[in-house]
Design brief:
The structure holds 3 protein chains of 3 kinds.
Chain A: E1 4-8, H1 9-18, E2 24-31, E3 34-39, H2 58-61, E4 65-72, E5 77-80, E6 88-93, H3 95-109, H4 115-121, E7 124-129, H5 141-144, E8 155-160, E9 163-168, H6 171-177, E10 184-185, H7 188-204, H8 213-222, H9 227-235, H10 241-245, E11 252-258, E12 264-271, H11 292-304, H12 306-311, H13 321-325, H14 332-348
Parallel strand pairs in A: 2-6, 6-7, 7-8
Antiparallel strand pairs in A: 1-9, 1-10, 2-3, 4-5, 4-12, 8-9, 11-12
Helix pairs in contact in A: 8-14, 9-11
Chain B: E1 4-5, E2 20-29, E3 34-41, H1 44-49, E4 57-62, E5 66-71, E6 82-87, H2 91-97, E7 104-111, H3 117-120, E8 124-130, H4 134-146, E9 154-160, H5 169-176, E10 181-187, E11 199-200, H6 203-210, E12 217-222, H7 225-237, E13 245-248, E14 264-265, E15 268-269, E16 276-278, H8 279-282
Parallel strand pairs in B: 8-9, 8-12, 9-10, 10-11, 12-13
Antiparallel strand pairs in B: 2-3, 2-7, 3-6, 4-5, 4-7, 13-16, 14-15
Helix pairs in contact in B: 6-7
Chain C: E1 7-12, H1 18-25, H2 28-33, E2 38-42, E3 55-59, H3 65-77, E4 80-84, H4 86-90, H5 104-110, E5 133-135, H6 142-154, H7 165-171, H8 196-199, H9 216-226, H10 230-241, H11 246-254
The chains are: A alpha+beta, B alpha/beta, C alpha/beta.
Chain lengths: ~350, ~290, ~260
């Protein structure tokens, strides 16, 4: 099949309905005044007109609670607990969340490979959708470079004048497009439209940070003692919402659970947060990261400094969820900009 | 689909979270709250082939209770078994102390970077330990003694709160009697008894008294944070550089593999890039240790 | 595992006995538990009244001197004590009495005869005896009850979660009630109930008590930003935390 194909809006929902033969389809659905990713039975439940979901799609390949192994005390047995997962389609993922998927991939594929993650991720077919206009003041996708597609998908949909232009990026993508007569060729005129749409986006989407990412890295390298962190830490409630909704947060804890027969049990991992009081506390009672100031600072460093040192990649996707959900209205863009300003003042000697 | 690993099976676990099974061969009470466990892997192949470096750690599982990281206190020069010295502190260690010889536990590992043994060859080694901090050092000390000719002089300064709190009491004598090994024992003021022949004083003070020279030397230290703090001050006074001082850090290492994020300090994971670090490296971390 | 079944006894003090009713509500789980434990004293569920128990599950807070006597006797007999429910763990609803000057409650309930009934300020049971396990909540959450009983049988400690309800609520993908103009006490309340109330469209009432290190000034900020009133929020807290909440109240009022 060609790299670029087209589907008219009229036929689009027919195609979405046909996806269920490839497995369960998870797509954005409306929930009260916001959206969530949920399984959909047919295209009438789909709502692609969304800014963000409460939780990012990470819950599908890195679930809130996941069993690692089963065990039995008498007779003594331990077993892997990876179940065979079914194929599924993750539909309608914004480019910021796709960046999040790529980041988690880097971490879990790093040696040693995480088999639970691989098991789920390899069964996923990702259909992305491009945002045509900026969403709200919480996102920082333009500065992070994630307002345009940058890989991480099997198919990307871009809406143009009564149709969707489809960019095919993998065999899996081709599989879910095969055999439909309404998937048409993409003409040169269509490609030109796509190009001018992208050019237009560069005018409409404005950078959120007052500096480039290279400057952000330098700022973070130098300002670990800045007063900005004290301010953020004082406002923080320690509710952990920011880390729960972040597409690239993956810290977890491991727990054992026994059945009522007190013989069989399960060892599972569950989402944890560096913002929790006990996160860095050891059995002797010593806390290696006390206080909300050092914890919030740690969270930012895990997005803007440490992963560049380790993987040469920023782990903030610019999705804006942390700012949107923060009870204390701590805004990521504001914090980064405050740091940049402070660094510039210091350099000039103010 | 689930694959079952029974005791005695020689199937290697492909799942990185699945532990090997080991039986407790021997339990030795070191102090009122520290026990040393000698463990033997159920699988015969593994018993022969399991190898590690001093300074590495394993994740010790009690199924139904949980898993905890402990450093390997035995030396890899002695094959067929591994040893861990465990202090009763929390939920998992409490349950470990209730175990008996013959009980089966899970072991994952070895994890971590271990001590740079190759770089230590041909150098004078100064071990400074406090309390249970002697456990990871013991792995290296026996390694050094077993390969005595590869290393130069060995100085050991070890102290505890009281005589009862000293660990490896019998082995301390053996080290004392090894040629080229100078052992100085100390207890905190108030922890001595009438027949105590060792020093009385805090470890950093006694270290200063012993006064090792920094020439062609490396210091390996492990113990409570307050002790380390003052040991560093003392070593600085004696002109040791931070590259010469090696320690092993403690953190809440849950997965042991660099995935769960809990042992993260700065850009490093204590479980993968450590737990052994030189002080020169530690000074680079942007976070307080 | 022990060969002999440990003997459990259930006692109540100043409470509504709702938590004990929850134990009965365990249904089939209770039947399975009975394979491992023997219940020798449980007024709400059985007529047996033995006193040779190993584990005492205590519901209710202390409000009379007689309560203290009974409690101390129970502690002497039992090897393990479990504080069941908010009344036993943090004082609970009963502690609302403490908000008024002493004597008011007696007068309101018993009129002139109030002087005949000696009553103390309400306190949780660990002010008088050592407690080995705490099960928070009003009422207790059945999953947690099962967990704690399993820990008792396995002889291991139960680690209460020390993070706020928000974590569980967000993992359950609820829409935050603050965004709907309601003041939920979740951000400073101890988790472990699976955000039960919010899952059912109600605010968190902080029936499980505060986390160990609640963020006092930050909570104040939140109220300001959402335009909610401090007094209303403190009033909500006093429903369950009137006992221990004094320090928190003072700190949050300081700013």
């Amino acid at each position: 099949m060609e790299r670029y194909v087209k589907i008219s809006k009229k036929d689009f929902y027919k195609w979405v309905d046909s996806l269920k033969k490839h497995g369960k389809v998870y797509a954005p659905k409306r929930k009260e005044n916001t959206h969530v990713f949920r399984p959909i039975k047919d295209s009438s439940e789909l709502d692609l007109n969304y800014i963000s979901t409460i939780l990012p799609p990470k819950k599908y390949y890195f679930p809130q609670k996941e069993s690692l192994l089963k065990f039995s005390i008498k007779p003594f047995e331990t077993a892997k607990a990876i179940q065979k997962f079914e194929e599924f389609v993750l539909f309608g993922v914004h480019t910021c969340d796709l960046a999040g998927i790529q980041c988690m991939d880097v971490v879990f594929r790093e040696d040693p490979l995480d088999p639970n993650y691989i098991n789920r991720k390899d069964r996923m077919t990702t259909v992305g959708i491009e945002c045509l206009k900026p969403c709200d003041k919480h996102a920082s996708c333009v500065s992070m470079g994630n307002h345009v597609p940058r890989g991480g998908y099997d198919i990307m949909l871009t809406e143009i004048k009564g149709s969707y232009i489809i960019h095919l990026n993998s065999q899996k993508g081709e599989d879910i497009l095969q055999g439909h007569s309404y998937i048409k060729k993409c003409t040169q005129a269509d490609r030109n439209l796509l190009d001018s749409l992208r050019k237009n986006k560069e005018r409409v989407f404005k950078e959120e940070f007052i500096g480039q990412l290279t400057e952000v890295y330098t700022v973070f390298s130098k300002l670990s003692e800045s007063g900005v962190w004290d301010d953020v830490g004082k406002r923080c409630v320690g509710c952990g919402n920011c880390t729960t909704v972040c597409p690239t947060c993956y810290c977890f804890d491991v727990k054992d659970e026994l059945d009522l027969n007190l013989n069989d049990g399960l060892r599972y991992r569950w989402w944890n947060s560096c913002q929790m009081d006990d996160f860095a506390r050891v059995a002797g009672g010593e806390d290696f990261r006390p206080g909300r100031v050092s914890r919030q600072r740690h969270r930012y460093y895990r997005k803007f400094k440490y992963p560049i040192d380790k993987f040469n990649r920023y782990f903030c996707t610019g999705c804006g969820r942390c700012s949107r959900t923060c009870m204390a209205k701590i805004n990521l863009t504001e914090t980064v900009n405050d740091l940049i300003k402070e660094h510039r003042n210091v350099s000039i000697g103010i | 689909m689930t694959e079952v690993l029974k005791p005695g099976s020689s199937e290697p676990p492909e799942n990185i979270y699945l532990p090997h099974l080991a039986a407790i061969k021997e339990i030795r009470e070191e102090t009122q709250d520290i026990k040393t466990f000698k463990l033997v892997f159920q699988d015969e192949e593994l018993r022969k082939s399991f190898t590690y470096k001093p300074g590495q750690f394993i994740e010790f599982s009690i199924f139904g209770v949980g898993e905890s990281p402990f450093c390997l206190a035995s030396s890899p020069t002695r094959e067929g078994y591994i040893e861990c010295s465990i202090k009763k502190m929390g939920k998992v260690t409490q349950a470990i102390h209730d175990l008996e010889e013959g009980d089966i536990v899970g072991i994952r590992g070895p994890y971590g970077n271990g001590f740079p043994v190759e770089e230590m060859k041909g150098k004078n080694l100064i071990f400074v330990g406090g309390g249970i901090g002697l456990a990871p050092l013991r792995s290296l000390i026996w390694n050094v003694i077993d390969r005595r000719d590869d290393f130069k002089d060995v100085i050991i300064v070890y102290g505890s709160r009281s005589i009862a709190d000293l660990v490896y009491k019998d082995e301390l004598k053996q080290w004392q009697n090894t040629p080229g090994v100078k052992l100085t024992l100390t207890v905190d003021p108030g922890g001595e008894a009438e027949d105590w022949k060792g020093e009385i004083g805090f470890v950093p003070t006694i270290l200063e008294k012993v006064n090792p020279s920094p020439g062609n030397s490396l210091v390996i230290t492990c113990g409570p944070p307050i002790m380390i703090k003052f040991v560093l001050v003392t070593l600085n006074k004696m002109n040791f550089s931070s590259q010469q001082i090696i320690t092993t850090l403690e953190r809440k290492m849950t997965c042991g593999l660099g995935k769960c994020g809990r042992c993260n300090i700065g850009s490093v994971y204590v479980c993968k890039d450590g737990p052994v670090f030189t002080y020169a490296q530690i000074e680079q971390f942007q976070e307080e240790i | 595992m022990k060969n002999k079944k440990p003997k459990f006894a259930f006692f109540d003090f100043t409470d509504c006995e709702g938590c004990q009713l929850q134990i009965v509500n365990l249904n089939t789980v209770l039947v399975e538990l009975l394979e491992h434990i023997e219940i020798v004293n449980f007024r709400e569920a059985t007529s047996e009244r033995r006193n040779d128990y190993d584990v005492a599950v205590v519901e209710g807070s202390v409000s009379t001197p007689h309560d203290i006597e009974r409690l101390v006797k129970i502690r002497r007999q039992a090897k393990t004590i479990v504080a069941l429910g908010a009344c036993a763990t943090i004082g609970g609803v009963n502690a609302v009495k403490n908000l008024n000057p002493p004597g008011i409650a007696q007068h309101r309930v018993y009129g002139d005869k109030g002087k005949n009934f000696e009553t103390l300020p309400v306190k949780p049971i660990d002010c008088f005896i050592k407690v080995d396990y705490y099960i928070q909540g009003c009422p207790v959450h059945l999953n947690e009850v099962a967990e704690v009983f399993k820990c008792i049988l396995a002889g291991k400690k139960y680690d209460m979660p020390n993070y706020p309800v928000c974590m569980e609520c967000k993992m359950n993908e609820n829409v935050c009630l603050y965004q709907k103009g309601q003041d939920c006490l979740g951000p400073v309340t101890r988790a472990g109930c699976g955000s039960w109330c919010i899952n059912n469209n109600n605010i968190c009432y902080s029936c499980r008590g505060l986390v160990d290190n609640p963020a006092v000034d930050a909570q104040r900020d939140i109220l300001d930003k959402y335009g909610l009133k401090l007094d209303e929020m403190l009033a909500k807290f006093s429903l369950y935390s009137a006992c221990g909440g004094e320090k928190y109240d003072q700190e949050i009022k300081k700013r």
